Amino acid sequence: MSETYTALEAFAEAGAYHTRLVQKELRDLPRPAQGLPVVVKVQYTSLNYKDALSAAGHPGITRQYPHVPGIDAAGTVYHSEDPRFAVGDAVIVTSYDLGMNTAGGLAGFIQVPADWVVPLPSGMTLQESMAWGTAGLTAAMAIAKLRANGLSPAQGPVVVTGASGGVGSLSVLLLAHLGYTVWAVSGKPEYHEQLKALGAAECLDRDAVDDTSGRPLLRPRWAGAIDTVGGNTLATLLKACQKEGSIAVCGLVRSPAFETTVYPWILNGINVLGIDSAEYPAPLRQARWQELAAVTPALQADLARLTQEIPLTAVPEVLTQMLAGKTRGRYRVKL
Ligand code: NDP
C-alpha cells in the first residue's frame, strides 16, 4: 500500500495547539489494535464540535499529538481484511474512537476495525451522508429515543437548543419532517429565518430557556426537548417540561454541569434520555442510518441549504469559529 495522501494534523508547540496540512504515507497509517482492518479512501468528512475540541488539544478527547482529527468519514473501501467488505464498497465510518485517538477523517485515508464500518445505505450518496454525519446520527438517535419513550407530535412543542449548530439544525429538520411542532432556541437571531425554513414553528432566544428564578419547577411549556448545550439551559428544560415529557441530553457547549432538584422526576415523571453516539451498538447504528437514508430524498433541498462544502484548507478557521459558537449548520469537507 504505497500511496501518499494529505491530512490535517493537530500538533502542540510551545504550550499551544495548531493545525497544519501534511503529506502522509499510507503504509504508515497504524493498523487498529483490535479487529480486522479496513482501509477507506475518504471522499468526504464533516465537522463536528468534537473535532474542534480535538484540534484544540482537549485532553478529554485526544491524548497524544500530533494527531489527525475527524470523527466522520465517507468513502470507498481501498483494502479490507474482513470478508464483509470488498474493494470499492461505499461506506460510512463515524464515532467509536475515530478522530479521537485513532487517526481521523480529515485525511485522504483512514484505517479502522471492520466493526466500525457501516455500508452506505441505498437512497443516500456519500456526499449526502456527510451532510448528516455524526450530527445527523445523533439527531436520529435522540428522536428514536424520544419516540420510544412516548413523545408524539400531539403532545406539544419540542424544544431544540443550539439550533443553528450541526446536531441542532438537523434535529429541527428531522422533527419538523416527522410532524412535531419545533421550538428552535438559538443565540443567532439572524439565523431564525433559516430555522423556520427548516421547519421550526417558533424561534426563541437563548435567554428564553435560561431560568434564574431559583424555583424548582416552572409552568409547563413543552412536551420534550433535544438539548445540545447543557448547563442552566438543561436545568430550565427540566423545570418547564410537562408531565411525562422527555428530554434527550446530547451536548455540553454551554456547560457540562447544571443544578437541579429531583422535582422534575418525582413530581412530573420527566424522562431524561442519554445520547451516546460514540458507542452506539452497530445494529442500532445501521437502523438509524437507514432511517436517515429513507428521508434524504425528501429533505435533499434542505440538507443542501444548511450544508457548506469546504476544502481541507478551510477547516482550521471553521474549527476555531465552532469553538466560539459562531458556526451555523453543517460543514462537509471534500477530500
Ligand atoms: P455545533 O458547534 O455545530 O453547534 C453548537 C451550537 O450550540 C452553536 O451553533 C450555538 O447555537 C450553540 N452554542 C454555542 N455556545 C453556546 C453557549 N455558550 N450557550 C448556549 N448555546 C451555545 O456543535 P455540534 O452540533 O457538533 O455539537 C453540539 C453538542 O453536542 C456538543 O457539545 C457536542 O459535543 C455534542 N454532541 C454529542 C454527541 C453525543 O453522542 N452525545 C454527538 C454529537 C455532538 P446557537 O447560536 O444557535 O444557540
Structural commentary:
The protein is an alpha/beta fold. The strands form three sheets. Strands 3, 4, 5, 6, 7, 14 and 15 form a seven-stranded mixed sheet that branches. It has a six-stranded parallel sheet with strand order 10-9-8-11-12-13, with helices on both faces. Helix 2 crosses helix 3. The chain binds NADPH dihydro-nicotinamide-adenine-dinucleotide phosphate. The site of NADPH dihydro-nicotinamide-adenine-dinucleotide phosphate has 31 residues, from helix 1, helix 2 and helix 3.
General shape: globular
Give the names of the bound compounds: NADPH dihydro-nicotinamide-adenine-dinucleotide phosphate
**Number of helical stretches of at least 4 residues:** 8
Q: What string, H for helix and E for strand, traces the elements in order?
A: EEEHEEEEHEHEHEEHEHEHEHE
The termini sit apart by: 19 Å
What structural class do helix, strand and pairing data support? alpha/beta
In angstroms, what is the radius of gyration? Answer: 20 Å
Stretches where pLDDT is under 50 for at least 5 consecutive residues are none
Instruction: Tell me what portion of residues adopts beta-strand conformation.
Output: 25-35%
User: Mean pLDDT, nearest integer?
Assistant: 97
Helix content: 25-40%
The beta-strand count equals 15
Structure at a glance:
The chain is an alpha/beta fold.
Give the secondary structure arrangement, pairings included:
Layout: E1 4-13, E2 16-25, E3 37-46, H1 49-55, E4 72-80, E5 90-94, E6 109-113, E7 117-119, H2 126-148, E8 158-160, H3 166-177, E9 182-185, H4 192-198, E10 202-204, E11 222-227, H5 231-239, E12 241-249, H6 263-266, E13 271-274, H7 282-306, E14 307-311, H8 315-323, E15 330-334
Parallel strand pairs: 8-9, 8-11, 9-10, 11-12, 12-13, 14-15
Antiparallel strand pairs: 1-2, 3-4, 3-6, 3-15, 4-5, 5-7
Helix pairs in contact: 1-8, 2-3, 2-7, 3-7
The site of NADPH dihydro-nicotinamide-adenine-dinucleotide phosphate has 31 residues, from helix 1, helix 2 and helix 3.
